[in-house]
Hints:
Blueprint: H1 2-5, H2 24-30, H3 33-36, H4 40-56, H5 62-80, H6 93-105, H7 118-154, E1 159-164, E2 167-173, H8 174-198, E3 201-202, H9 218-224, E4 229-230, H10 234-239, H11 242-268, E5 276-278, H12 296-319, H13 333-356, E6 358-360, H14 362-367, H15 376-385, H16 390-407, H17 416-422, H18 429-435, H19 438-444, H20 453-476, H21 481-488
Parallel strand pairs: 3-4
Antiparallel strand pairs: 1-2, 5-6
Helix pairs in contact: 4-5, 4-7, 4-9, 5-6, 7-8, 7-13, 7-20, 8-11, 8-20, 11-12, 11-13, 12-13, 15-16
The structure holds arginine (ARG).
The site of arginine has 10 residues, from helix 7.
Amino acid sequence: MSGKAGGLATPRLWGGAFDAEVDPVIDAYTRSLPFDHRLAAADLVGCLAHARMLFETGVVARDSAAAILSGLSSMLRRVEAGELEVGGVDEDVHTWIERQLTEEIGDAGRRLHTARSRNDQTAVAFRLWQRAEAERAVAAALELVEALLSQGRQHVDTALPGYTHMQRAQPTTLAQHLLAHAWSVLADAGRLRLAHRTAGLSPLGAGAMAGSPHRIDPVRSAELLGMDAAYPNSMWAVADRDYVAEALFACALAMVHLSRWAEEVVLWTSSEFSFARLQDRAAKGSSIMPQKKNPEPAEILRGKSGRVVGDLVSVLVTVKGLPLTYNSDMQEDKEALFDAFDTVTASFDVARVLGESLEFDREAMAAALEGSYITATDLADLLAAAGVPFRSAHERTGAVVRAAGERGVELWQLPASDLEELVPEIEDREGLLAALRPDASLAAHRSYGGPAPERVREQIEEIDERLAAERQWLEARKPPPIYRAHLDGRLLAEEIPGTGPADTPVLGDGDSPGPRRPKVGDA
Ligand code: ARG
């Protein structure tokens, strides 16, 4: 390696012009191998695409290309099988790959870095890593949606109070409540899918920032990587971290949703609510109080949302104020994204187990529908339907609530004489009293998206359809063409078909540049 050639002891990709070792304090502080080793497989895939492109364009001759491709392929196989440990004294994973390759195949390995810099190398590896992780996270999110949906299916008719300001507000169905969480998580899956798409712009070939004087073909590299397009600007390619920020936002918002779900699990399983019990497999005990059953997994889930929000903020603040193009500050993006994806995927799983292990207490929920005049709004709505302006109906209902309070009865238990006096517009007193029962209120709230069982059944169908569509997207994900060629041992074969034109725009709906062939002399 050039470091050794330059007379320095530590293997480095540079050092020809240096005559002293880096201070160990600096070395330890600046190395990224201790964490970016996680990019090894993705980086090797990027290396394979680069090497194959160099071969196809004739920048690197067949013999060297053959050695490089089979060397990289062997390393990739062993890294994935856990047979080749990624670690040691190298500065970063990129240095590790090149040193290891050159040790294994000899001097040909020293040609791999032609028309490439670690700046485009790190970006392409990180993008590939993000795409794979986004797929895993989407899969975990969909399982959580499925768990909420199957609980919901069993509780289409189960009534409980809905809350605003943490005060009992109006009756709702348990399915409606659970599905509200399911919709959030479905939206999270959608955002993660978008982050997958944003990461589908290949920076490979941008070099340090100025592309290359070699006759390279970045569009072909993008195609080999199964990406949607190549960067349209070499400076943007290495300076851009939008894909990281978007993924972090998707993860952070998902964690915020999971935290709200966790908070409700904590509340509902408290003695004060008693709406649900957690099965033992999803709870923990106290070291001192033998009677305790704590919803600790839910609390930890709630707690973990903070760090992922922190990951997002940390990357935004890191990139803010950086002059174009690459700056070493950007090395700080790695641990944030690793942490965010590790946390969000594990958290989807935990939220799912919590959901599956909740045993609901229908009676406790039904009991909570009493004692708070929870159908008062229904009375105001009935008055409004009978022609009373809603604002007056609201006031009049207030008087009815007061009367029920004085008598110590529910609204639906008021004597006919009170109704005659307070709501003369509605003559069918029996019908009115029946309409003020919580189950009647629920049945009446059948506006689009409402909690009425019939509407909730439709919602269940809609979520089912969306789940199927998201699953289809996941199933349609194919490994990059270069990775398939690696698996088939056909890296040097004449044909490696690409994935064809992008099916999804990258820059935003409708304005994708799409894969393009370079024009200027094809260089
Ligand atoms: N380890 C760096 C990162 O993760 C990649 C190296 C970038 N190039 C350089 N000259 N230091 O961002």
